[in-house]
Write a structure and sequence with these properties.
The chain has helices spanning 2-12, 14-34, 43-50, 63-101, 115-152, 161-168, 170-197, 201-214, 216-253, 274-314; strands at residues 259-262, 269-272. It is mainly α. Strand 1 (259-262) and strand 2 form a beta hairpin.
Length: 339
């Protein structure tokens, strides 16, 4: 029932899906959606770019490689920090919108979230990401070993390098994914307890852990259903854009003319319709991108609503008062952005 209400929330209002999509893209969804349209580099291509600077003759990484990794890591950390801050603002919007849609107002009016609340939400997610960082540090050695072996003695040149690395280091990938799923569950609960109950960072995290212990079946079912729906939506979106991109690539590289005769009798003419086919495939790709974005936004909004409903169900005695109109919330209040 709760997932049905969450799905109705995701598809009920256009602005809800758009806001949820913005949060999804900021937090890395843009990489997933763009991945099918990226041509993965070959071993020769990587070697041509890095030359002998990345790995020494003894197989060990060079200082140059550490510098590149450090710069790239710094850029990723900066991006994650900004994405977390803006994403927290989007989380507040979605939480308030979910409460508004169910007719239960929040504790107090919050026209614009206090900057302290946003930083607390960032802190909650940052603390919950520490186990993921530890898992990544453990898995990095395994992934590096597999990647080096595939670069020096490839097992299958027909398969892209990243795919081969994931296949041969599947144990490390599974461990990181499981740790991320657990910590994401704790973070989702803690963030909503922070917003709805005005608790501190550690109080919200401890409350989330206690909620998991007290409501294990409900929490696990919500995690499996919401995450499964998001994974399925992302997989469908990636498959659609990947197929459309392949069509565009085939149409662009086609060397065989597509001859079609137009007209009648002496007025007929034959034209090569390859440009028309390419334009049509490009339109299909654009349509697939729009559909993928819409599906991702609906899935993200529904997942957020499901977690908000789970927290609200565990806090029946929460004190409430009128909802916010200034954030442009969708729902029963009838007030929307720009009203």
């Amino acid at each position: 029932m709760r997932m049905g209400m969450a799905l109705a929330f995701g598809i009920g209002e256009l602005d809800t899906a758009v806001v949820a999509l913005a949060g999804f893209l900021l937090r890395g969804g843009v990489v997933l959606l763009a991945l099918p349209s990226v041509v993965l580099p070959s071993v020769i291509g990587i070697a041509g770019v890095t030359g002998i600077d990345a790995v020494g003759i003894d197989g060990r990484p060079t200082p140059w490689l550490f510098e590149i990794v450090a710069v790239f890591g710094g850029a990723v950390i900066l991006w994650l920090a900004l994405a977390s801050l803006i994403g927290s603002l989007i989380d507040v919007w979605l939480i308030e919108a979910t409460i508004d849609a169910t007719g239960r107002p929040v504790r107090r009016r919050r026209a614009i979230p206090e900057i302290g609340l946003l930083f607390d939400m960032v802190a909650v997610r940052g603390i919950c990401l520490l186990p993921v960082a530890a898992a990544l540090a453990w898995a990095s050695t395994r992934v590096y070993t597999v990647a080096y072996n595939e670069l020096t003695t490839p097992s299958n040149l027909a398969t892209p390098l990243p795919v081969r690395v994931v296949e041969n280091a599947a144990d490390a990938v599974v461990v990181v994914a499981l740790v991320w799923l657990v910590t994401e569950t704790v973070a989702a609960l803690a963030v909503r307890r922070l917003v709805l109950a005005d608790g501190g960072v550690w109080v919200s995290i401890v409350g989330a852990l206690v909620q998991i212990v007290r409501r294990p079946f409900s929490t696990v079912s919500t995690a499996v259903a919401s995450t499964g729906a998001s994974v399925l939506a992302t997989a469908v979106a990636v498959a659609a854009t990947a197929t459309a991109f392949d069509w565009c690539r085939v149409a662009a590289r086609s060397q065989q003319p597509i001859a079609i005769s137009l007209g009648f009798g002496p007025l007929s003419t034959t034209r090569d319709f390859r440009p028309v086919v390419f334009v049509l495939t490009a339109l299909v790709l654009a349509t697939a991108w729009v559909a993928a974005a819409a599906l991702s936004g609906i899935a993200s909004a529904s997942r957020s609503a499901a977690w908000t409903g789970e927290v609200v169900a565990s806090m029946p005695s929460a004190q409430v008062c009128p909802t916010v109109a200034e954030l442009g919330l969708s729902g029963g209040s009838g007030e929307r952005s720009g009203d």
